[in-house]
Amino acid sequence: MFIGGYRAVYKFKCDVTVWNRTKSKCDPLISLGATYKASPEEVAAYCDVTIAMLADPNSAVDIACGKNGAANGMGPGKGYVDVSTVDDGTSKLICERIKATGASFLEVLLFFFASPSLAPVSGSKKPAEDGQLIFLTAGDQSLYERVAPLLEIMGKSKFYLGDIGKGATMKLVVNMVMGSMMATFSEGLMLSEKVGLDPSVLVEVISQGAISAPMYRLKGPSMIQSQYPTAFPLKHQQKDLRLALGLAESVSQPIPIAAAANELYKVAKSQGLSDEDFSAVIEALKSKTKE
Ligand SMILES: NC(=O)C1=CN([C@@H]2O[C@H](COP(=O)(O)OP(=O)(O)OC[C@H]3O[C@@H](n4cnc5c(N)ncnc54)[C@H](OP(=O)(O)O)[C@@H]3O)[C@@H](O)[C@H]2O)C=CC1
Ligand SMILES: O=CC(=O)O
């Protein structure tokens, strides 16, 4: 088994083999008993099921299909599960390459389960550690059934959505909504402060009303303190908005609110906030209001 993306840390109750570009990030897993292999190809050759979690479409393709990539170690009877958030075209490309080896392929997209018991500082990292994820999957149903016990260790619920691409597109739609919600919430916090209201009270009012969302209650208090402990990196939220814009364009669907939110995340990236939590998008509004 191979974990490319490391931010979401899972507690497996089975043999785990790991690889990551920056090897030092594997150390905590190795110290818990995981085996290390020197390349994605070696991991795939060694394991029955390989799980990859990479930053974006380019790295997902590179690690699956590139030199020393996982596809070189795949073959009949093996399974490749890609957990990176990518567009449907990328997922189909990786699927084709993996299936050409005789292996099966499943795309799995993660979303965090909103539990009232979550600590207020957490985002999607803590639910991952606690095994409280939601999985959106598509591709080979037999592989879905085979890895179901693994997904059940890591998550709360799972959906099988059918053909390859359906999981990726569902995730992009979900994250388009999430990115826009966070941008407008940021505007609300900034405006409330500017007009002399207490933003903490705003968070409480929103939390009790019809527009309540767990994300506001989870992230609001730290945003008010200008703290952005990274659960979901801002650069990935902007990537997902960019991919959602491409998806919308491919079917001529206007998504003007998401387009405006994307611009705000781009400003935040240009301020050096890429690796902060995506709630740091509020900083882009602070610089605009400073005169
Ligand atoms: N964090 C979250 O809550 C969620 C994340 N996702 C998605 O999961 C994916 C990973 O997210 P997350 O773990 O948070 O992101 P991180 O940025 O923390 O990790 C990205 C991973 O990709 C690796 N990587 C990046 N570029 C390359 C490359 N060119 N070659 C090889 N490896 C590369 C990094 O390696 P290195 O360590 O060497 O930099 C790292 O392991 C993203 O697609 C994200 O959108 C989906 C749902 C929730
Ligand atoms: O994709 C991000 C998440 O938190 O879910």
Concise structural overview:
This protein has 291 residues and is an alpha/beta fold.
What do you see in this structure?
The chain has 12 helices and 7 strands. The chain has 2 domains: 2-162, 3-Layer(aba) Sandwich (Rossmann fold), CATH 3.40.50; 169-290, N-(1-d-carboxylethyl)-l-norvaline Dehydrogenase, domain 2 (Orthogonal Bundle), CATH 1.10.1040.10. α4 (88-99) links the parallel β4 and β5. 43% of the residues are buried. It has helices at 27-31, 40-46, 57-65, 88-99, 125-129, 141-154, 166-194, 199-208, 214-224, 234-250, 256-270, 282-289, and strands at residues 17-18, 35-36, 49-52, 79-82, 104-112, 133-139, 155-160. It has 291 residues and is of the alpha/beta class. α3 runs parallel beside α4 (88-99) and α7 (166-194) crosses α9.
Residues in β-strands, percent: 5-15%
CATH class of the largest domain: Alpha Beta
What's the order of the H and E elements? EHEHEHEHEHEHEHHHHHH
CA-based gyration radius: 20 Å
Bound molecules: NADPH dihydro-nicotinamide-adenine-dinucleotide phosphate, ligand LL5AMS7Z
Largest sheet: 5 strands, mixed
Number of helices: 12
Q: In CATH, what is the homologous superfamily of the largest domain?
A: NAD(P)-binding Rossmann-like Domain
**What is the strand arrangement across the widest sheet?**
3-4-5-6-7
Secondary-structure class = alpha/beta
What CATH calls the topology of the largest domain is Rossmann fold
Integer tally of domains: 2
Unreliable stretches (pLDDT < 50, length at least 5) are: 4-12, 118-123
Our measurement of the CA-to-CA distance between the termini, rounded to an integer number of angstroms, reads 52 Å
